[in-house]
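Render this sequence as a predicted structure.
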Amino acid sequence: MSAAADMHEVPELSTTRASGRWRQAFRTPGGIVGLILMAIVTTLALLAAAGVGPDPAAQNVPDALQAPSGSHWFGTDQFGRDIFARVCSGLANSLRVAIVSVTVAALGGVLLGILAGYYQGILDRAVGVITNVLFAFPSLLLALALAATLRRSWLTVAIAIAVVYLPIFARVARGPVLTLRHAEYVLAATAVGRTRLSTLFVHVLPNILGILVVQVTLSLSWAILTEAALSFLGFGTPPPAASLGGMIYEAQTLTSVAPWMLYAPGAALILAVVGLNLLGDGLRAALDPRGGSK
């Protein structure tokens, strides 16, 4: 059998096995629970983004600090704003920041990582220096410094978080590429005349997508936590936009008289983070080459 035929057979078998692993990820208890939790979180965020329900910024002082009721499911805050609407809006803002930041970090980091791992040489050393410098700073401290330097908005928060997580994706992508560049089907692709760049994106990149998907899922949960921490410290999305971290900060002094102000955003934050982590754990277990479906 020719080298070209061997080259086309390996990806086909890999794709079949990968599809079975993807299905298995959503059959594990953790994967199912994570999927359900994220369905709830996403639905609430989409409702807020679509403008369904009360205005999260609308103030009604006579209704201030009302306990949860039929008219206000999660109660109201010190300005009479509906906490349920603000929680939904906060989830929408958190997911928006997380998705934008992780997308930017993944695209930039994966590109640098696979190029550095495949081509080696000066490029690999340069990427190594950049990632080492960024890793030298605690992630929250680096994000805080970047967010404080830039003009305060949700986009600058997303950019700050993206810079923090970019070296993580570069490291995650580079490691497997160092091994795959010597795989038989990669060498076969080169032998039949494919360019190195074509081989990298057609044969190497698809084989590390499982690892990258797991990293994206886990990074989304970290990004949500980082955004909440920045908002809690006063460097996140500026008011009047709702932010889960900002809501938790505002509830500190009123916990004794209006504990629902703290419980609602705190529960929403836990729901989103736990859901993404369970989803990531399910994907990691299913896509682990040492286990899962065969």
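Summary. The chain is about 70% helix and 0% strand. Residues 1-15, 290-294 have pLDDT under 50 and may be disordered.
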